[in-house]
């Protein structure tokens, strides 16, 4: 016999689980049904291959490519910034820093992740862009470069923190084996410890990418809101997320085709982040098996 | 020839005085066993010989240790060079999560050897010396972690041999292995003695008696007795040694 208190707790827990699942299913349902309306009017081939995205203009085009390229470009810049920085910080904290330093700095880094993203957006627009313009005169006041760089700084903690956990979990015996053969600390860190933690590091990078793809405020504020099929970081670009905000905040009529474009863009975004999450989950599982 | 010489060595971890006035000389091409109850300082002493304790904050050492006549704690000594000369095999097999080949090649690469042929030759030679070549020659690119425990330990020995040490320190190298693997390691130690000076820590009296030329008995941080293995096990001059080897304590 279970006590009635326990039964209630169990029910409440089950209920909250069910609510979460239902909400997720609901979101997916809305995404699919609304974008089904979009694809009833616009052929999938236009969506995938047209090189312009101008649903809000008089001459309408519905090609997702400019939004994808904007998302890809800012994400690429962000990851190129965050990956080396994140790994260097992680290696420093795990292999070089003394315990006290590690204990103080790690939470401080995690605060970086807690700064509201709108603050990062204005930092990119009002500090980073003017600063970079001194060296790159052709840099627009809205550009992919500043947005990507600042987004990179923003996801450093995602990468450094998870990578550091992975590095720290590498058994001490591997480091000793390396030192025992006459390796330096640097060699041991980068040739033994980092490779041994590579699956954990990979997971952190994928989560960082997912975070960058889904990030909205920084790109909406600092990269501009002009769909632009380009890989030139000096130019204005619009990402999928920035487009969604733009429409959601505008006065587009509910139920119109313009309105439905949001869902078509949204489902594209969803597919990417969903895939990335699954890949990271799969890597994590494989990695756990290896050490068990 | 004297290969290792410890003079009046004292070691402390913080306030804890774990090695007391150790004087000991080890000759070239011999096997020396360190025995004694748990916590008596065998591992600590072994690890002062390749300065593996340098990473422990509270570690302090007094006295001198000479290897091939040179003071290894001298400021001019590069600890990486020392460890190349004084290799170490650990209690639990600890191969890198890399391929079998990469495990053995690692030591060569970190010491700046990049000639492919030289690396291939040394890997093969080291694996042969460690009596592992026949078992792995067809799967050098397989993960080292796919080998059995005993094979992994011989791989670790091969890896150590690859950087051409003259001394090999072994801290209970067979204690995590089954009897057959243990026998193989013991046989291997006998062969390696021809070329290397070996110091081995063991809790297994029979093992010490079987494989070593000299045995050092440590007790509570002191070197109680150090003699030819045949003498120490049949006719110990110290009462504590006798009690220990006959299993009356420890
Ligand atoms: N890293 C360390 N920091 C502080 N004290 C230590 C450290 N390593 C060992 N000691 C202490 O030093 C003493 C000797 O330990 P050591 O490991 O050398 O013993 P041992 O003879 O190898 O024992 P065992 O047979 O159990 O391996 C013990 O009292 C131990 O608690
Ligand atoms: Mg020990």
From TrEMBL, chain A:
Residues 68-280 form the ABC transmembrane type-1 domain. The chain crosses the membrane at residues 12-32, 64-91, 111-132, 144-171, 192-213, 262-283. It is a multi-pass membrane protein. GO terms for molecular function: phosphate transmembrane transporter activity. It is found in: Cell membrane. The keyword Transmembrane helix applies. Belongs to the binding-protein-dependent transport system permease family. CysTW subfamily. This is Phosphate transport system permease protein.
Automatic annotation (TrEMBL), chain B:
Residues 4-245 form the ABC transporter domain. It comes from the Bacteria. One of its GO terms (cellular component) is plasma membrane. The keyword Transport applies. It is found in: Cell inner membrane. It is a peripheral membrane protein. SUPFAM superfamilies: P-loop containing nucleoside triphosphate hydrolases. One of its GO terms (biological process) is phosphate ion transmembrane transport. It comes from Pseudochryseolinea flava. Part of the ABC transporter complex PstSACB involved in phosphate import. Responsible for energy coupling to the transport system. Keywords: ATP-binding, Cell membrane, Membrane, Nucleotide-binding, Phosphate transport, Translocase, Transport. Coiled coil: none annotated. This is Phosphate ABC transporter ATP-binding protein. GO terms for molecular function: ATP binding; ATP hydrolysis activity; phosphate transmembrane transporter activity.
